[in-house]
Amino acid sequence: MAPRTVLVEADGGARGNPGPAGYGAVLRDPATGEVLAERSAAIGTATNNVAEYQGLLAGLTAAVELGATEVEVRMDSKLVVEQMSGRWQIKHPGLRPLAAQAVQLVGRIGTVRFTWIPRDRNTHADALANAAMDAAATSGVAVPSVAPPRVVAPPRELGGPQPAGGGAATVAAHAETPGTDLTSAPVSWEPRPSFTATRLILVRHGETEYTEQGRYSGRGDVALSAKGQAQVRATAARVAALAPQAAAVVSSPLSRCTATAEAIAAAIGDLPVRPDDDLIECDFGAWEGRTFAEVREQWAGELDAWLASTRIAPPDGESFAQVADRCARVTERLVAAYPGQTVVVVSHVSPIKLMLRDALAATDAFLHRLYLDAAGISVLDRWPDGGIAVRTVNDTAHLASLQ
């Protein structure tokens, strides 16, 4: 079956903010402009932003019903477009479940692009929304409740704590995963000379007390534990054997990483350690230092929304989409600065998982299914023309004697 492309124009508004609210959505054939479907409804008393998200949900739902496999969403709401594109945090708790539902619909479609347009180019959806607001002003309809997406289980160490015995989470994958665009990378079975690639040896820092206790460990500067220090010594020897001629050692600026990096640099031959802020762990905001159970108890809705989408951040924190953007920047810098050389990169769970996800052109489900041990080693090659080879993922053989 040929792919079906649909254009969605959506809008929403409230008279009073909050006040009588409604939304409108129009689906068109992008080639002819023909209207394929219209959706509108009054939603009682709500804010402009809630109404705009409801318009988006209605448009995406209609696109799914039409069998669309590629959608361009056009809205005059800068907030919705930027949040759904992963560039802005979703700070308001009332919007996070709506965004999570939108991400689930995106995952059912395949490819979805979000484009901001001026209000005067969104007149059809705006008219539908205003008609719905007229109805809301006279009907007294109550705002429908919007349940957050249900998550079956917490993720296996997705940058935060690792729940004992937990399975993989149900993840709403989105088509436009932020990070390096690898869809145009060369595809070939032909052997490539490794000496022309930049080899990145990705090392997760050694264990800390937070690692052992299963706590979210982001920007807090938690030191290596005694076990972590032993892991670092073994890791340094292993990396020195893998890369005796490494050109550089770069590291997250947090001490658990710099201590790991300094041991590796000394084992290779007194290389300097260069901190890079783009390698820092995800900012878990209000969840920093807390266990998964504690977060579940206090932020159940926010946690479900976060687990469902890499575009949603913890309260006062950072989304994985934002971390992916940082990872893409540092990777490109290293490939440009060290062609044909080996670089040791010492970082955290989230950045390393995101680098491997992008290198493998995987979906976000990969993040929940990949386990990275403390002091584990992964290796990937990047060629100047965009070619990529992942050679090792989470090698921990050097830690066997410490078990």
From TrEMBL:
<dbReference type="InterPro" id="IPR013078">
    <property type="entry name" value="His_Pase_superF_clade-1"/>
</dbReference>
<feature type="binding site">
    <location>
        <position position="256"/>
    </location>
    <ligand>
        <name>substrate</name>
    </ligand>
</feature>
<dbReference type="GO" id="GO:0003676">
    <property type="term" value="F:nucleic acid binding"/>
</dbReference>
<feature type="region of interest" description="Disordered">
    <location>
        <begin position="152"/>
        <end position="172"/>
    </location>
</feature>
<feature type="active site" description="Proton donor/acceptor">
    <location>
        <position position="281"/>
    </location>
</feature>
<protein>
    <submittedName>
        <fullName>Acid phosphatase</fullName>
    </submittedName>
</protein>
<dbReference type="InterPro" id="IPR029033">
    <property type="entry name" value="His_PPase_superfam"/>
</dbReference>
<feature type="domain" description="RNase H type-1">
    <location>
        <begin position="2"/>
        <end position="142"/>
    </location>
</feature>
<feature type="active site" description="Proton donor/acceptor; for phosphatase activity">
    <location>
        <position position="281"/>
    </location>
</feature>
<dbReference type="InterPro" id="IPR014636">
    <property type="entry name" value="RNaseH/PGlycerate_mutase"/>
</dbReference>
<dbReference type="InterPro" id="IPR002156">
    <property type="entry name" value="RNaseH_domain"/>
</dbReference>
<dbReference type="GO" id="GO:0005737">
    <property type="term" value="C:cytoplasm"/>
</dbReference>
<feature type="compositionally biased region" description="Low complexity">
    <location>
        <begin position="152"/>
        <end position="161"/>
    </location>
</feature>
<dbReference type="Pfam" id="PF00300">
    <property type="entry name" value="His_Phos_1"/>
</dbReference>
<dbReference type="GO" id="GO:0004523">
    <property type="term" value="F:RNA-DNA hybrid ribonuclease activity"/>
</dbReference>
<feature type="active site" description="Tele-phosphohistidine intermediate">
    <location>
        <position position="205"/>
    </location>
</feature>
<dbReference type="InterPro" id="IPR050275">
    <property type="entry name" value="PGM_Phosphatase"/>
</dbReference>
<dbReference type="Pfam" id="PF13456">
    <property type="entry name" value="RVT_3"/>
</dbReference>
<dbReference type="InterPro" id="IPR012337">
    <property type="entry name" value="RNaseH-like_sf"/>
</dbReference>
<dbReference type="GO" id="GO:0016791">
    <property type="term" value="F:phosphatase activity"/>
</dbReference>
<dbReference type="InterPro" id="IPR036397">
    <property type="entry name" value="RNaseH_sf"/>
</dbReference>
